[in-house]
Design brief:
Number of helices of chain A: 0
Number of strands of chain A: 11
Oligomer: heterodimer
Shape of chain A: globular
Largest sheet of chain B: 7 strands, mixed
Order of helices and strands of chain A: EEEEEEEEEEE
Helix content of chain A: under 10%
Structural class of chain A: mainly beta
Structural class of chain B: mainly beta
Chain lengths: 120, 110
């Protein structure tokens, strides 16, 4: 069974750093890109970017490039999303998802989400 | 990359059909047959229902169907059921390994 299991909810202060994780199982982890999607409170889905677990190549949405870092450790089937300096506006639910199809054009399995709350 | 445009809400009575539109540009929806649709219930992760314009994901009932014409894609839900109520998001491949989502449509079953 394909599963993406994300790390637990986080509460951080502005300016702090943070890394959240997404562990894949039940499939060949290096065969599929892992994407990250943001959902701000009461809002829609926003595609942030993706990582190729086979070679760690990353691709970011222009809206998020430079604001977050996506990485992967294929030895433990885990992808990461990290911030070096959180802002209150980073408060959101973050989902990882497996990208399938030509050029990863759809997301077939999703993690349960990680709620990040940034507040002083 | 601008978000795709969806109506904020749609509704229908049980047994009726409802269609949700998703409008993009020639750089995303119009340029590729790579439109997907996701269903999200409150407090849950999104779930893939349609991929590559009209293919149903595994386990999705045939009441759900997708289509595309030019820069606009559509999701039709036939024979509405109470459990179809939720938020629906379209997505399109936008080139350069990028995806873009629509703003979402809240479907209410009256």
């Amino acid at each position: 069974e394909v599963q993406l299991v994300q790390s637990g909810a986080e509460v951080n202060k502005p300016g702090e750093s943070l890394r959240i994780s997404c562990k894949g199982s039940g499939y060949s982890f290096t065969t599929y890109w892992i994407d990250w999607v943001r959902q701000m409170p009461g809002k829609g889905l926003e595609w942030m970017g993706r990582v190729d677990p086979s070679d760690s190549y990353t691709n970011y949405s222009p809206s998020f490039h430079g604001h977050v870092t996506i990485s992967v450790d294929k030895s433990i089937n885990t992808a990461y999303l990290q911030w070096s300096s959180l802002k209150a506006s980073d408060t959101a639910m973050y989902y990882c998802a497996r990208a399938e199809g030509v050029d990863g054009n759809f997301l077939d399995y999703w993690g349960q989400g990680t709620l990040v709350t940034v507040s002083s | 990359q601008s978000a795709l445009t969806q109506p904020p809400s749609a509704s229908g009575s049980p047994g009726q059909s409802v269609t949700i539109s998703c409008t993009g540009t020639s750089s995303d929806i119009g340029g590729y047959n790579f439109v997907s649709w996701y269903q999200q219930h409150p407090g849950k992760a999104p779930k893939l229902i349609i991929f590559e314009v009209s293919k149903r994901a595994s386990g999705v009932p045939d009441r759900f169907s997708g289509s595309k014409s030019g820069n606009t894609a559509s999701l039709t839900v036939s024979g509405l059921q109470a459990e179809d109520e939720g938020d629906y998001y379209c997505s399109s491949y936008a080139g350069s390994m990028h995806l873009v989502f629509g703003g979402g449509t809240k479907l209410t079953v009256l």
